[in-house]
Amino acid sequence: MPSKLQPAVAAPDETRLDVVIIEDIREVREGLKMLINGTQGFHCANSFRTMEEALQKIGSLPPDVILTDIGLPGMSGIEGIRILRERFASVPIMALTVYDNDDNVFAALCAGASGYLLKNTPPARLLESLKEVAGGGAPMSPEVARRVVKLFRDFQPPERADYHLTQQETGLLKLLVDGHLYKTAAEKLGVSPNTVSFHLRNIYSKLQVHSKTEAVAKALRERLI
Fold it and tell me: N or C terminus: fewer CB in 10 A for the chain?
């Protein structure tokens, strides 16, 4: 006869924080996995070496938090954050990286990162930050927080620069800022992906940037749209 004191669902499962890790360095990935699985109230739902693998295998049941590196092989973490944010609007994404320069911080936050930690973050602080970001916070390493504060303090809205973008190029840039991929941008504009690529090359040349992330960051910084 079953005990009346036996709960229908085990208590740890009700409060457990499920985390997905995206990190290409095996030692770091396994270390994070051991830390998370070895701490009560935390569980590593899955870990991936590349963003492409993560996007393919996370599936329709997302975790409570996604913890991702930025400097990944293949698709960058920043580009991946943008796609993950599009797919899982309510799941907080935390960047964990060695990069603390302004461009990477700004690009990651604009892409949709909810927090930004450096890899020298102590384990206890990392676990605390996972809880914080899951609860709606925006944890940052002290060095990163200082950069963000300085970035806003020193920011002077520039005169709107004229890069001589055409109407089609401006429309495409706005779609990229809104998070569209090349294929969905092409559908929105009613053109082929090849036409989108042609306009992108012109945009990069006029803005003097080398990637979609840089173009989006510049468009936001200089209020081009």
Answer: N
